[in-house]
User: Fold Deoxyribodipyrimidine photo-lyase type I from Rhodopseudomonas thermotolerans.
Amino acid sequence: RPVIVWFRDDLRLTDHPALHAAAQSGAPVLCVYVRDDDSDGVRPLGAAARWWLAQSLRALEAELRTLSATLILRRGPAAAVLAELAQHSDAAAVHWNEIEIAPHRAVADSLADALTVAGIAYHRHRGDTLVQPNAIRSKDGRGMRVFTPFWRRVLSLGDPPEPLPRPTTLRAAPAQPSDQLSDWQLEPTTPDWAGGLRATWMPGEAAAQRLLADFLARQPGYAEGRDYPDRHVTSRLSPHLRFGEISPRQVWYAARFAAAERPAIAPDIDKFLSELGWREFCRHLLAEHPDLAASNLQPAFDAFPWRSDDAALIAWQRGLTGYPIVDAGMRELWHSGVMHNRVRMVVGSFLVKHLLVDWRLGEQWFWDTLVDADPGSNPGNWQWVAGCGADAAPYFRVFNPVLQGEKFDVDGRYVRRWVPELAGLPNNLLHQPWTATPLELAAAGVELGGNYPRPIVDHKAGRQRALSAYAELRQR
Ligand code: FAD
Assistant:
């Protein structure tokens, strides 16, 4: 009798506990992915993530073919679909890796119930995070809400379990009907807006491994350079981690090994792993607060006087705010499905502070446009930026988009790439074109209010309005 492996956000073969156990059992293996937009509370993927998923499933199919296995695609509520497949194929057992997110757990619980009723065994494995969410508690028994002590506790636990090897063989199971990936319409047709994504990314496990190896080979420089959007020093692993094409413990072990081989890069590796720690932290927060994308972690913010301003929101989404670093970031996002972390913080701060627009609208836009849109990291970071989250940046600290641009895009390469209409301006004017004289603008071919907008809000006035709104909140 075959055993089923249910692939979820773990689209890889190496360090895949469920696949490993199924292969070890010696039984024929059926590999299945279920597209589930129907189960309660499971957040449907945004458009950019759907594009990624399609490529990633193709890559997984190709990897499985090297083991003479196939990937069965099914659509519907995962628990019902899998229970039916298990019965139909007379499976002896179903294996899967847990996703420690409440609605995903609920789906897995109903599958477990249905399999129990049908007398089919099931095995729930772990490997999505370095440390199991809920395993780290503060003294009062609740989840930890401050990153530094959280990460110290994670480090004090020592190394996570070692990654599992990729199976060398799989016994093929009799074929089962499968959907066609193209019928799922995960990718855009007309208009085909995915050209920038295709040019930027190579989804799949093999590409993830290459990125990790390249990243580790080119250190040092991460700790110092990670804040500069044009330097390309970060790993770019986030969408691969999001879809589980690589596991956090593979990253952990490879990074530790690299640091042991080259002690000079140890500080960079420590910093890099602590960033991976933020992913863990957000996952732990999400496990504790399943409605992280909807509710302020600090309830005091429920009364925050957000403005409703569709025109400002649209200008922000399109990269037409008149602030070059903000516009560069938003256009990078639209074009390539990603944005550098420093710039995410700047554009996020601009939306919630200068424009006083509710962080949830920014979170939703990111959810739809980021290839790495993650149910923990996206809302967790938005709450951090908005000042209403766990361990958040204080609301009254308002990023100055001009100074941020001048500091982190010193020679203007990032802005010139994404806002080419400003490329002719000299560096001292690039981040604040409205201070240029008419002659300087004309020489650079810039027409403010013409081919590039004037600022939609004055920095000082926007900052003051944000601080007044915050003061009002505190008086309530
Ligand atoms: P590296 O610097 O190489 O870091 C390694 C890994 O650590 C990343 O791949 C990522 O998995 C993790 N990581 C790094 N920084 C963070 C962080 N601040 N929070 C959580 N994990 C982190 N990251 C996502 O993966 N998905 C999101 O939806 C997401 N939304 C964000 C929204 C906002 C408003 C902000 C400010 C940040 C968001 N981030 C998100 C975090 C961060 O911007 C990205 O993880 C990072 O830019 C990815 O680039 P990298 O892989 O080169 O990172």
Observations:
- Residues 3-127 form a domain with the Rossmann fold fold (CATH 3.40.50.620).
- The chain has three domains: 3-127, 129-159+205-288, 299-475.
- Residues 267 and 305 are 42 Å apart (CA to CA).
- The mean pLDDT is 95.
